[in-house]
Amino acid sequence: MATVLAIETSCDETAVAIVNNREVIFSVIASQIPVHQQYGGVVPEVASRQHLETINQAIRDALENFGTNWSQIDGIAATCAPGLVGSLLVGLTAAKTLALVHQKPFLGVHHLEGHIYASYLSQPDLQPPFLCLLVSGGHTSLIYVKDCGIYETLGQTRDDAAGEAFDKVARLLNLGYPGGPVIDRLAKQGNPAAFALPEGKVSLPNGGYHPYDSSFSGLKTAVLRLVQKLQQEGIDPLPVNDIAASFQDTVARSLAKRAVACALDYGLHAIAIGGGVAANSGLRQHLQAAAVEHNLHVMFPPLKYCTDNAAMIGCAACDHLNRGHTSPLTLGVQSRLAITDVMQLYSGHGA
Questions:
Q1: Tens digits of residue pLDDT in 22-43
Q2: Alpha helix locations (H) across 266-343?
């Protein structure tokens, strides 16, 4: 089984890991959250510069921990899409350089495929087919995992991703950045039934609603109007805990309902959750309750593998390398790339 050194720099975490198949040998993550908090969100240029300052030390830490024995490294991988172009270039350039210098195969990995593979790190016996609910700051998708590199998108958000909605509502409530963890913490002290908020639905051209697609823009607007209404009524301080709990419960209930319906409709008995929002306690509670009710197996990765990390990238790269998939050194970065186009990243596969 392959051992891969992997690099992840798609957004605001500089991460390096060494992974053997589905076992993490070493993983380091240097978060940029303190840097971006002062701006209320990720600033792409600042993120790129931070990656440049951090990447060499992260690679050094991984190699020193591993023993710097290049004969035991079978390949070098890096996230190449989707993500912030400047940030992706830092990791991809570092990976290509290591691959050239040490004459190792190079693999460009799709960031969302990495999130799918995060579940394999804690569930080494997991095998396709299964459904993946991928919920992060930039993506909310229901993905039919058929095999390594073979995916079908069954549902997606039509506007804001779930994580993005958390950040925007947190900003609205003056809770700071990132919004997910602080809303989750406050929601535990609030009443999820305090305020009735609309669950976003996506209309179909011929009537009815899309069973698997999500929409969070209307929910975000509803929270804004609720806050404005409470302020006009002179309510001070705002019941922030109850607002957070009502918002989180609406998002979690919506995601769980769609994921369960999708799994049942497609005859899939396992749902793997990936992405930063997978750490949300409300989502975990709703999905676990639904799993028991419908006899489904729901899998959440450990909290450290919910947010961006290189271990999940390395796990995906190991599977591809074991199957003989490698990427050309001419491979570039892409800010957007559909999960269904993963095999385009590998020589001799895809268009």
A1: 999 999 998 877 778 787 788 8
A2: 281-294, 310-322
